[in-house]
Amino acid sequence: MIDYHMHLEKGPFSTEWWEKFYQREVENGIEECGISEHAHRFREARGIYDHLPYTEKWCDSSLEEYVDFVTQLKKDYPVKLGIEMDYLPEKESEIKDFLMRYDVFDYVLGSVHWLQSGFGFDIDPNDPRWSNDLEEIFFDYFDRVKRAIHSGLFDIIAHIDLIKLWGVPLPAHIDDIYMDMGRIISASSAALEINTSGLRRPVKEIYPSPRFLKTISQFDVPITFGSDAHLPEDAGRFIRDACTLAKELGFKTILTFNKRKPAPVLLT
Ligand SMILES: [Zn+2]
Ligand SMILES: [Zn+2]
Questions:
Q1: Structural domains in the chain?
Q2: Whose atoms come closest to the Cα of 229: which ligand?
Q3: What is the reported pTM?
Q4: How far is the CA of 113 from the centre of ligand 1 (A)?
Q5: Contact 82, 108 (CB under 8 A)
Q6: pLDDT in tens, 138-184
Q7: Which phi and psi angles does 83 have, rounded to 5°?
Q8: Which of 105, 123, 147, 264 is most deeply packed, by most CB within 10 A?
Q9: Which ligand is located closest to the Cα atom of residue 159?
Q10: b/e map of 43-60 (b: 16 or more CB within 10 Å)?
């Protein structure tokens, strides 16, 4: 069992803070962890985020410090160095440059957190933009996910239906979207992340939802797991259940990564 999605950002890069996460991972049966700090934390990624609000207060950590910290941890723990990178269609070339320049990661998670005109939809359920046409919001979101997959920039597509997080009603044609996504991701080299953090959100459901997962299971798609923990208590949480569900639905392959080279492992 793997947990390739967690964030240490609420504490320092210290072994003491990491140990709190790791203990919970072990208790939850996780055999390999991956730390995936948000790219928006790092000064080195500022050029990717300079058109968005929040950037000033976010991009203030040192990437080098992060890389050195995880490299040290690797000597004593089964841990991978990951990064969660936002997909921003207008910044594709900057993202590509960043990933080429800092060729240090074991894997790159690709995430959509931002919609048209800088709408960070997962920040505030009371954002007035949530009263816009929901069909359009969903269309914009999944269009970006599609482009993220097609860009080929990412090893893993994270929380593929994050857009539902506040428990909003789903559009009537959602099953067509699921089918479309299944087809697109299976034709790509990216793995699909099963992310358990939706269980902590108002929607109270994993990403992708069991219904979405069932649709994707018709295609041959490799998977990874992630708790998206930002606090130790959430590290590795519900991964065992997600694993059981994935097996029941017929998923067969987990991808592990080393320096962005995937190694398939049979889901048993
Ligand atoms: Zn995310
Ligand atoms: Zn995350």
A1: 2-266 (3.20.20.140)
A2: 2
A3: 0.97
A4: 7
A5: yes
A6: 999 999 999 999 999 999 999 999 999 999 999 999 999 999 999 99
A7: -150, 140
A8: 105
A9: 1
A10: ebbbebbeebeeeeebbe
